[in-house]
Structures are given as structure tokens and as C-alpha cells.
Amino acid sequence: MPAALAVTPTSVAPVVAPVAAGVVAATTASATASTATASTAPVVISDAGNSILYDAEPALRLALGTAPFRNHTIGGFGVSVLPEVWQGVFGRDVPADHPAVVVVMMGNRDFPVALAQPDVYRSELDQAVRLVTSGGTRVLWLGLPPLPPNVLDERGREAVNALFAELPTRFPGLVHYVATDAVLGAPDGTFARSLPGADGRVVPVRKENPDGTPNEHLCPEGAVRLTTLIREQLASLVALPAAPSAWQAAAWRTDPRFDDPVDGCRS
After folding, report:
1. Cα-Cα end-to-end distance for the chain
2. Counting CB atoms within 10 angstroms of each CB, which of 44, 112, 130, 245 has the fewest?
3. Phi and psi (nearest 5°) for 5?
4. What is the enclosing helix (H) or strand (E) of 218?
């Protein structure tokens, strides 16, 4: 996974000398042409977040068709730790892509703060949103899906998701929140290692550790489920190119990340 760079000072634009009157017409024509070119530019989609979202990237990259996709996921990503990392991702790395929408999923690392100091975490989330939307980018914020059974983890997940769900109210038109429980969880909202596939067969959607314990990360079928949701939600925000036919069964399924741990996606 790519490592985020440390935050660097924002460059200051040079002062522009006054433009002579005779140059105005040519400048206006050039600006008009640039605007026309920009209007036909492809829609760029970025992501930022944790290693669950990382697992969906091979499927998402293909499912977006010709839309350029820029990824910025990092294991253990959160806004309650390592401010030089998340501020660099949200304040520099993603804005440098000039994306129409950035897809965000995170939260595991932030459980302690979200549970003990929700107002502090709320403020950190707001700062992250302000940074990443400063250039007009919109945010598709995904809820954290059900995790392997653990009472403390479930309390933390509920806490961060509740705070994520508040964001569209404070940032109307900029943040769109959607839960992921229905696509990556059992019907009752709990963790599910396997779920019915498109053909009705029960298939693994989340990994398994070598000792047989459940792992939160995605198998190819989990990536298909999450990518399908992401694409549907993105299409409600921006005009996307058509998805390639049969993208769900393409070669991305052999990406090495789906064999880490080894045989973690065995049936």
C-alpha cells in the first residue's frame, strides 16, 4: 500500500502583473477554450482510507471503466492518530488528483477517541472534510462494515458510524454517507464470513486467518459487493462511463492481496 507523504507547506502563487488591454481578448478566448476542454475531461475518482477499502481497489478500478482512479489507502488509516499522515492525504494527496468524488472508508483506528471523546473526533472529521473538499471535491463516505465478533469493536464501530452519518448535515451537498452493513454483513447486521453469491452459492466474502478465526478483510466476492455499492452511489453523484461487461469475473480476482494471508479466501 502506498505510504502517505509528510505535510509540506502550501506554495504561494506568484503575483501576476496587470494585463494590457490589447491582450484581454486573446486571454478570454484562451480561457474559453480551456473551459471547453475541462468540461470534456474524464471524471476522476479517488479513494482514501483503510485496508478494507484497499481490498476493493482492483475491482473498483475496473468497474469505473474509463474514469481515472487514484488510490490513497493506508493500513490503519484514521484521523485520531498520525495527523501528519491524514492531513497529508486529505490536504494534499487527494486534492492533487482534482477528483470529482473521493471515496472514504476508515474508523477502526479511531474507536478509542470516538467512544471517549466524540466531540474531539467530530472536530477532527470536520477538519478532514474541509481539507479534502477545499477544491470542490465531493465525498462518498462509507460506513465501516460489520467486524469479526468483539463487543468492544462493535461499540467502536457503532460510535464512528454514527459520527460519520452526521457529516452530510454539516456539509450538505459535499458529503454523502452510505452504510455498508447490507452488502458486507449478515441479514441481522452482524459479521458474515460467507454470503450467497450471484448464482445463489454461498461464497467467502471476508478472509479467514490461518488459525480459522475470522478476518475483516475482503475476498473477491466481498470486493464485488462493495464495488457494486460504490459504483451505484457514485452514479448518483456524477456521470460515470459504462462499466465493462463481466467486470465482476475479470483477472483482478487473482490480485495477490486476496491471498494474504495465504488461502485466506478458501471456501
Report:
1. 26
2. 245
3. -90, 155
4. strand 214-218
Domains detected in the chain:
42-259 (3.40.50.1110)
For the stretch 135-191, pLDDT in tens is 999 999 999 999 999 999 999 999 999 999 999 999 999 999 999 999 999 999 999
Contact 115, 159 (CB under 8 A): yes
Cell matching residue 89: 492525504
Model pTM score: 0.85
DSSP state of 242: P
The CA distance from 250 to 164, in Å, is 33
Total Cβ atoms within 10 A of residue 3: 9
E-state strands within 87-212:
101-105, 138-142, 175-178, 194-196, 202-204, 206-208
